[in-house]
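Quick illustration, no need to memorize.
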Amino acid sequence: MLKEYLKILRIPHWIKNIFVFVPLIFSHNLTNEDYLIKVILGFIAFSLTSSIAYLFNDIIDVNQDKLHPVKKNRPLASGKLTRNNAIAAIVILIMLLIPLLCQLNNKFNFVLMVYALINIAYSIKLKNIVILDLMIVAAGYMLRILAGAYVIDVYVSNWLILTTLFLSLFLAVMKRKSEMSLLNNNSETRIVLKEYTPEFINQISAITASGVIICYALYTVSPRTVEIFNSEALVYTTIFVVFGLFRYLYLVLKNNKGENVIDTLLTDIPSIINSVFYLIVILYIIYIK
């Protein structure tokens, strides 16, 4: 039972919430202990909230998940946990979340509430509306960035927000493409798939990937970025972003991966190495050089 509860909470997906650390790192405050503690608390709050969203979504989608070749193994769809088990887990997570929110400021709490509400709306209806389903996924990542900035009250570059927007849209589109290949356009498990075509998906993926590269490159060379970090070297980190995007495209198009973004990224050695080197170079440029 414990194993099934851990599985239904989707703990590996908590890694998505590291986006709340982005404003801390790029605002030159990673060594500020007070700020770091606040962001860690914010990360935990987002993680608990995302697990609540996953539980709610599993309750809503249990019948559709039973028809899915992969999701049928989820605790609710497989019958290993009941609907009442999932509701009990949601109540416990809310009880853990409330004391955390009391330690965080109102701006962060408001963003977290908006994140929870759009996830509920997504599970009930919005995931079935073409294009809007992608925008909702992207909004979730952008809200993480804003929450990370609000929790420590720092400015976050508009270019960085736009980069996050295009990156999250790119990942969402690649997920849809993988689902189309996996399910052979069977819309019983994902109704919105019938509205997408391979040509449309390919166009959107090209646009969003280009948007990520352009916005990130412009962020690295913007006058404010150069002034804050007292260096123009950040532009060289663009190569890691380009490699990461191209590698992910390769995994989706060549190996038909991408239905689960986290599993794909955490099991691909080149992607892991690229991410580690990117982080090392970023920290060197911002905090050492």
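The two ends are 50 Å apart (CA to CA).
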